[in-house]
Amino acid sequence: EAQVTQNPRYLITVTGKKLTVTCSQNMNHEYMSWYRQDPGLGLRQIYYSMNVEVTDKGDVPEGYKVSRKEKRNFPLILESPSPNQTSLYFCASRLTGGDGETQYFGPGTRLLVL
Amino acid sequence: AQKVTQAQTEISVVEKEDVTLDCVYETRDTTYYLFWYKQPPSGELVFLIRRNSFDEQNEISGRYSWNFQKSTSSFNFTITASQVVDSAVYFCALSEAWNYGQNFVFGPGTRLSVLP
Question: A108 and B101 in contact by Cβ < 8 A?
């Protein structure tokens, strides 16, 4: 089944404790992206990657890091989480050509930073 | 700059009523794509439709229909004979072809509640 998976789905942590949210897709998509969703703001892009070893900042990159060492994986790293990073996070992927404009989303990760 | 506006924050209807969710977009590009996604209470994002800027034909899929009007920069979504299972947050999104990387902009969403 074609899908984007994220782990963990739910996470409670404390300020300053480094964490990683994993994202993996099995559709051989070149493009992957991370979003955060906050009430009244919709989804805002954190980082994106056009392909392996190619990443760039989105609209709200502060406090986050990413890496793209393999095509299928795109982990999101919070080196020192703060309460304002409490949010719902989505990973997404798509092709970069043809009918590639449609993004497919993972199930989401709910993060609470105390 | 690209922008998507969904002026209706919340809508409540009674089951079997028709409901239209509004989406207005701004873009400087002539080639772009518009999307609707559904987010049910379980939280996942479900892709509903993609429309490119060169295709203004309206689309119908079962009880769902979409009206794309470039003249008013709108891409409205209508649910006919609404059902309780339609209760969700609906997002409209815009992707400009020229800005291929950082190009997916979402509206703030409209929360639809369908009451039995």
Answer: no
**CB contacts, 8 Å: B97 with chain A:** 101
Reported as a single tens digit per residue, the pLDDT across B41-93 is 999 999 999 888 888 888 888 999 999 999 999 999 999 999 999 999 999 99
Smallest Cβ–Cβ distance between B108 and the set A33, A41, A103 belongs to A41
In this complex, do B102 and A96 lie within 8 Å of one another by their Cβ atoms? no
CA B21/CA B6 separation, integer angstroms: 8
| Strand locations in chain A (E) | 4-7, 10-13, 19-25, 31-38, 42-51, 54-57, 65-66, 76-78, 87-94, 104-105, 109-113
Beta strands in A14-69 (DSSP E): 19-25, 31-38, 42-51, 54-57, 65-66
User: Tell me, what DSSP letter sits at residue A73?
Assistant: B
Contacts of B71 (CB under 8 A, 6+ apart): none
User: What is the 8-class DSSP label of residue B80?
Assistant: S
What are the φ/ψ torsions at residue B92 (nearest 5 degrees)? Answer: -100, 145
Q: Which residue of B has its CA nearest to A54?
A: B101
